[in-house]
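ESCALATION

Customer reports they have been waiting on this structure for their group meeting. Please prioritize. Original submission:
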Amino acid sequence: MSRLLYDESNLPDIDTLVAKNYDNVNPDEVQPIRKIGVLTSGGDAPGMNATIRAVVRAGINAGFEVYGVTRGFHGLWKGEISQITVRDVSETLQRGGTFLMTARSKTFTTKEGVLKGARMMEVYDLDALVVSGGDGSFKGARALARIGMPVIGIPGTIDNDIGCTDYTIGYDTAMNTAMEAIDKLRDTASSHERCSVIEVMGRRAGYIALNVGIATGAECILIPEIEYDFNRDVIRTILDGRNKGKRHYIVIVAEGVGSASDIAKKIEEQTGIESRPTILGHLQRGGSPTLRDRTTASLMGVHAIDCLLEKRYNRLIIEKDGKITDIDIEEGINMKKTIPAEDIENAKRLS
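Update from on-call: job pushed to the front of the queue and completed.
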């Protein structure tokens, strides 16, 4: 029996729809889950394989058939779907990236594309879909929910910029990768009187930059959340350090602030100090996930299966106050967060 609420003849603008909230629905009236799909979407994040593994193992142990969708929502509407066994996820826990692969689908940003994805779920008789990714991936999941397909979202993004959760899978690994790279750059910067301007990922969020800056003892940390005066906060800080005998300098720049190359050029022009830009880029997405990312991903995957077993659909799995829980997808997507002012002030006190 089809779960779809709409078809090609009566599909309105998806943005005007609201996904069904199951919080106040009698579980006995909810169609049970037998087969589920799992996909990873958007930018890859260390720990996504651990998420897939947990969904597959916990799902099969719960009596579900589990199907993997290759290349995210792009693969969903194209039907790149195959059954996954426990054996298929063996030896994946420690691997970075995602063995299901990922992609960004322009087609799935349209209501026609969403309907194609839902129809393909029906072709494979999938009763629900577990999606691991960032805010864009959650919006794709919400679009499916709004036309009647039950979904569960698990936050997988190195940026840690999803408002409803304190932590996103991949964040810890990305910070450790950046920290290790910056430590190596400091070694060579200290051999010369040199300023290293290092651009880290994070889009419009400065979580990686702030924490990595604190961990590496950076002289300057530039993040989108706070305005800065270049002369006062960068040039003066570097010059004051030089005048006190310092001979190397680290400036951390979140990618949402500006170009490391442009900033390095301005520093060298105004101070005469040799300045080298380094863009860590997708290096931060790779590598074996840390213990925190492996355990968080595993526990979030198990919680996703618990939601399906309890017939609580259209939920986002989140971490709040150190505990794994879940929230309605509509409520969760609309939530915002920012870096606490106290964390920013403490970083300034340490610079």
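Sent to customer with the following note: The mean pLDDT is 93.
Escalation resolved.
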